[in-house]
């Protein structure tokens, strides 16, 4: 793919972001040349290693966090999770892949008793600092969502903002079994994920652009239809440096979720669209709520 083609893709698709911000073109060109120099070719695996996850969810991820998800957006999403999981004051709830506490700390402010697990010590440190600033107490734990330290403890658990599907099918289903084991009888599990049907309607690759001050983040998504995985090539241009990371996640349809969740020990499974609305083929998100 040539520089011109990538530039046209960015220009064509960047308006898909609700946070579209005018770019300094020299920074965008710098990132695009970096992409072309690497030919945008990398080997796509059916799983993501923990080291790759830590590399992707780095300080750069936090730096652009409030641009991609503004505080009022995070407030609204925490409210949606609260309602869909039927949380109450004192409800014990677990977030898997909690990151820097964007949602977990807001649920704690609402009165839930929250635990958060993540594989990144840096993100957990940011989450703890934010919790201290908000005056809330959240139990943050360093760990792998495929092997949880809790059994029969929580009323609810959730994986938000495409936090499911990083591994191969066997390990993804292991995550669901571990989540089920952490829940009490009657517990609820929520998973928020892109709607595969809507995602595949767009011509690949799709380019998303975000800017904070003079720094730029470019995300280029492509689909591997043979493996049902979405692949993200991310370029960060920040403080005069260019960094590149990759991420891959499995795209599941609702019927696949039903099969996996029932196998993991859940009895009923419901589907919602973005922000808890009705789920249709053109919903941008698929929100699954399963009941143990």
Automatic annotation (TrEMBL):
Keyword line: Methyltransferase, Transferase
UniProt cross-references to Gene3D superfamilies, sorted A to Z: S-adenosyl-L-methionine-dependent methyltransferases (2.20.25.110), Vaccinia Virus protein VP39 (3.40.50.150)
Family matches, as Pfam families: Methyltransf_25
SUPFAM superfamilies reported in the protein's UniProt record: S-adenosyl-L-methionine-dependent methyltransferases (SSF53335)
InterPro entries for this protein: Methyltransf_25 (IPR041698), SAM-dependent_MTases_sf (IPR029063)
Molecular function (Gene Ontology), one example: methyltransferase activity
GO BP terms in the entry: methylation
Source organism, top-level taxon: Bacteria
Domain Methyltransferase: start-end pairs: 93-187
PANTHER family registered for this protein in UniProt: TRANS-ACONITATE 2-METHYLTRANSFERASE, TRANS-ACONITATE 2-METHYLTRANSFERASE-RELATED
Listed name of the protein: Class I SAM-dependent methyltransferase
Native source species: Mesorhizobium helmanticense
């Amino acid at each position: 793919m040539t520089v011109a083609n990538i530039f046209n893709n960015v220009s064509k698709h960047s308006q898909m972001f609700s946070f579209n911000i005018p770019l300094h073109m020299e920074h965008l060109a710098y990132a695009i040349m970096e992409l072309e120099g690497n030919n945008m070719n990398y080997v796509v695996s059916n799983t993501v290693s923990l080291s790759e996850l830590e590399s992707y969810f780095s300080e750069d991820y936090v730096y652009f966090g409030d641009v991609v998800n503004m505080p009022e957006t995070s407030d609204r999403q925490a409210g949606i999770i609260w309602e869909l999981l039927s949380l109450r004051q004192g409800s014990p709830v677990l977030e898997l892949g909690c990151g820097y506490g964007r949602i977990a700390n807001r649920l704690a402010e609402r009165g839930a008793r929250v635990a958060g697990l993540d594989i990144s010590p840096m993100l957990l440190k940011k989450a703890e600092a934010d919790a201290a600033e908000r005056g809330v107490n959240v139990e943050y734990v360093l760990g792998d969502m495929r092997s949880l330290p809790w059994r029969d403890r929580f009323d609810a658990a959730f994986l938000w903002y495409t936090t499911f599907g990083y591994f191969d099918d066997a390990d993804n289903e292991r995550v669901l079994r571990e989540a089920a084991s952490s829940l009490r009888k009657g517990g609820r599990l929520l998973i928020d994920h892109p709607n595969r049907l809507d995602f595949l309607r767009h011509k690949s690759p799709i380019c998303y652009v975000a800017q904070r001050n003079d720094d730029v983040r470019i995300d280029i998504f492509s689909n591997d239809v043979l493996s049902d995985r979405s692949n993200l090539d991310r370029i960060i241009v920040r403080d005069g440096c260019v960094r590149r990371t990759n991420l891959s996640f499995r795209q599941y349809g609702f019927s696949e979720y039903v099969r996996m969740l029932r196998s993991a020990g859940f009895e009923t499974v419901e589907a919602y669209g973005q922000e808890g609305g009705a789920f249709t083929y053109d919903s941008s998100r698929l929100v699954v709520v399963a009941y143990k």
